[in-house]
Amino acid sequence: MVTIKGYTNNPELRKKEVIPGTFDAVFKAVLTKEKEVLAEIIELVIGIPKEEVIKNGVIINSEYVRENIIETDKKSDLLISIGDNVINLEM
């Protein structure tokens, strides 16, 4: 975890630890649970209408199958299928 001090004038909040949204696990958790936020990002960046993302978007397992025993684990931050499109979102 990262401790952010002096970020606020509230002395109680200064003692708290903050996990940045740029951490892969936080990025994935937030966008998986908040489909409206995910849809907004996709609409702004790619242009697919937010309503279409919310209605037709399906989050896909982002862990890839290993080709051989030597290969390390591979995964994307977030994969979402919308119609014929698959979007790979990386932090």
Describe the fold and architecture.
By secondary structure, the chain is α+β, with helices and mostly antiparallel strands. The protein has one domain. Helices cover 36% and strands 20% of the residues. It has four helices and five strands; from the N terminus they run βαβαααβββ. It has helices at residues 11-14, 24-33, 35-46, 50-56; strands spanning 2-3, 17-18, 57-60, 78-82, 85-89. It has a three-stranded antiparallel β-sheet with strand order 3-4-5. The protein has a two-stranded antiparallel sheet with strand order 1-2. Strand 4 (78-82) and strand 5 (85-89) form a beta hairpin. Helix 2 crosses helix 3 (35-46) and helix 3 crosses helix 4 (50-56). The chain is flat, with a radius of gyration of 17 Å. The mean pLDDT is 77.
Features:
91 residues; alpha+beta; three-stranded antiparallel beta sheet; 4 helices; 5 strands; 20% strand
Short description:
The chain has 91 residues and is an alpha+beta fold.
